[in-house]
Write a structure and sequence with these properties.
alpha/beta; Rossmann fold; 8 helices; 45% helix; globular
Length: 197
């Protein structure tokens, strides 16, 4: 990446909504993107479009299209001046995210493992069949048992308790008050009572 491209990335605003599957990311990301006036890029939206175009299969096929979905998501993020990204990012996605934005703003959805498992099981019948969520995934449970943490890529991090309804307006205000927000304020500033981790 040349120096001009690096400089350009420094003025990009990316808001990452992260956390494990079924932790409430999309439920938060959709209204958050609307309040911030930003486009929303969702990994599952991309993945389900790939399922519709290429067909569904077993867990291995789902993971293969999942990897492709992350690649598409990261490439789209590099082409936009600002966006909200909704995905259960893993640490190895860090370099790609930092290529898109030098200091992304991260909103981490914190939810107890038992509640995440309950939601995951409850939503499975309504999910796109390509996700094969109806088949037990030992890797998913092992990851939950091991604990999931924010990516911590150097930008501000706000951990949000998503086990109950979230005050989206308060989260949006916190985002827009960060130095990494390179856009006009979407609403008048007010005293900030929320702290990032």
């Amino acid at each position: 990446m040349d120096e001009a491209r690096v400089s350009e990335r420094g003025s990009v605003t990316l808001v990452l909504v992260t956390g494990p599957p079924a932790s409430g990311k999309t439920t938060l990301a959709q209204p958050l993107a609307r309040q911030l006036g930003l486009p929303l890029l969702g990994k599952d939206t991309i993945k389900e479009a790939l399922f519709d175009a290429l067909g569904t299969g077993d867990r291995a096929w789902s993971r293969r299209l999942g990897a492709a979905s992350y690649a598409v998501l990261l490439n789209l993020a590099r082409e936009l001046p600002a966006a909200v990204l909704d995905a259960n990012f893993y640490p190895d996605h860090g370099p790609g995210l930092l290529q898109a934005c030098q200091r992304p703003i991260e909103i981490f959805c914190r939810c107890p493992a038992a509640e995440v498992e309950r939601r995951f099981t409850r939503r499975a019948p309504a999910r796109h069949p390509g996700h094969v969520d109806h088949v037990p995934d030992t890797a998913f449970k092992a990851a939950l048992d091991g604990g999931v943490s924010p990516l911590g890529l150097g930008g501000p991090v706000l951990e949000v308790d998503t086990s109950s309804p979230v005050n989206v307006a308060a989260v949006a205000r916190w985002v827009a008050q960060q130095p990494e927000w390179h856009l006009p304020m979407p609403f008048p500033p007010t005293p900030n009572k929320h702290r990032g981790g």
